[in-house]
Amino acid sequence: MSIRGKSAIVGAAESELGKVGSGFTPLDLVGQATERALADAGLEKRDVDGLFSASVYYQMPTLSAGEYLGIRPRYSDATMMGGSSFVSHLLHATAAIEAGLCEVALITYASTQLSEGGFRGVSDPPNLYETPYEPRYPVSMYALAASRHMHEYGTTREQLAEVAVAAREWAKLNPKAFVRNDLTVEDVLASRMVSSPLSILDCCLVTDGGGALLVTSAERAKDLRKPPVYLLGAGEAHWHRNISQMPDLTTTAATDSGRRAYEMARVGPEDVDVAMLYDAFTINPILFLEDLGFCEKGEGGTFVEGGRIAPGGELAVNTNGGGLSYNHPGMYGLLLLIEAVRQLRGECAERQVEDAEIALAHGNGGVLSSQVTALVGTESVL
Amino acid sequence: MNTAPAVAYRGHLENGKLGYQRCTDCSAAVFYPRVLCPFCGSSALEWCESVGRGTVYATTAVHSRNRAPRNVVLVDLDEGFRMMSRVEGVPAEKVEIGTRVRFEVRQEDEPVAVFVREES
Fold first, then answer.
1. pLDDT-derived band at B119, boundaries 50, 70, 90
2. Contacts of A143 in chain B (CB under 8 A)
3. Strand locations in B2-110, DSSP E?
4. Do B6 and A128 lie within an 8 Å CB cutoff?
5. B 100-119 near A (Cβ less than 8 A)
6. Residue A1's pLDDT is what?
7. pLDDT > 60? residue A102
């Protein structure tokens, strides 16, 4: 039995983004996003009977969100795999809906890290085998992967910078993007080094923000306010948690998650109109373009050259401006799904990809650890 | 197994040795130390002493305010396991992938495994 086309995203909204001001809690932003997503869908809060969340603030995030929102779910899932969690929630929600365990699922997340003073990540206990060497979590782990990719395939810092520049060009078309000024490859190369080869402009933003998605059965979705965005296929994979346990730093578990998602969706990379690839660092989209089959292993650096993933390029990647230039509130996977939904509904104005029917949303979590791929599409591709 | 894996690892370092485990069922080298083999699932792991020679697999120089950049590497040991460490005696930015390195112990709060470049 396949779950292809059995569920649809029917509501999608961000909370306030960027810097929301002191005193707001992540739950306040969860509240904002949920209210907006319900209005977007034309659903009432009382319709929600499944709740999905992950957090670095709340150890029991669905309990905290449920209490704040006044939702008493009959199905609750707090799967925590870092930034990829929310793409995973979409798959889990679909399975639960298909099994009759809930009917309307709310997936929600928020962070107020910037207003609190800076990056707020996970708080695992010290790792005896890594902590003594003082890598800066998580950037040094991605830097190690970038160093290896450069060594094996000749990828250059200029090619990494092209990813940041393309993201910025998209961000200029998105009024909600946090950073929209001009950016050149030279600017990226000249910016402050953080963990070589990654400089500060190779790193995603640190912002506040959150979002909410509403997912229901394909049948119920037909009667709601907006055109349904159907889940065509999804796949999960993780092979490690700590970077020193990653088998090959140039190949991620997206090779597995992507294959699973494509097989379920019965499409391939050539069918994808919009690719939302979790860009915590500039090396990420290069790895994911390879691992998700948009180019051969080792060719990601060449692929992104010459504005190929920028507006007007060959492949529309991270059309909201990505974690690099739009917003990155600690975990970003929910926001990239929201952009995928908007592209398929045709709501993206200046940055709209023409005739977008299939979007790929790829979430990454931990230190290239968790990989979750979802393919979503309009009714025309069911 | 009477000794916790982490305790046995530290015990090796205190004696100037780099300990790792080998699975007596599937022969895989296992690091970090565990109570079962992550390759075949066997609990028949035995402690071994590494010769302490390896090759830099990946490298980064971490920049922080008010201190010199520090090196962080992943090293592939000749026995077939990989670990995080740092290479000393070279500026952090000058550590190169492919460099042959040799294990030493530094006494910090805890004994720590580090590497230096192998003399050519």
1. confident
2. 60
3. 19-23, 29-30, 45-49, 53-62, 70-77, 82-85, 87-88, 100-107
4. yes
5. 108, 110, 112
6. 65
7. yes
**Per-residue model confidence as pLDDT tens digits over B54-95:** 999 999 999 999 999 999 999 999 999 999 999 999 999 999
B82 interaction partners in chain A (CB closer than 8 Å): 244
Global pTM reads 0.98
- How many Å apart are CA B92 and CA B70, to the nearest integer? 5
Q: How far is CA A225 from CA A105, A183, A220, A251, A347, in A?
A: 16, 39, 11, 41, 14
User: Under CATH, what is the fold of the domain A136-203+233-381?
Assistant: Peroxisomal Thiolase; Chain A, domain 1 (3.40.47)
Beta bridge partners of B82: B76
Of B32, B61, B73, the CB nearest to A129: B32
Residues of A with CB under 8 A from a CB of B: 128-130, 132-136, 140, 143-145, 147-148, 151, 192-198, 243-245, 249
**How close is the nearest chain B Cα to the Cα of A196, in Å?**
5
Nearest to B60 among A130, A143, A244 (CB): A143
* Tens of pLDDT, residues B1-34: 589 999 999 999 999 999 999 999 999 999 999 9
Asked whether the beta carbons of residue B57 and residue A244 sit closer than 8 angstroms, the reply is no
| DSSP secondary structure letters along A150-209 | HHHH---HHHHHHHHHHHHHHHTT-TT-S--S---HHHHHHSPEEETTEEGGGBPP--BE
With pLDDT > 90 as the criterion, what percentage of chain A qualifies?
97
CATH fold of B5-117 reads: OB fold (Dihydrolipoamide Acetyltransferase, E2P) (2.40.50)
List the CATH code of the domain at A7-118+207-230.
3.40.47.10
Structural domain boundaries in chain B: 5-117
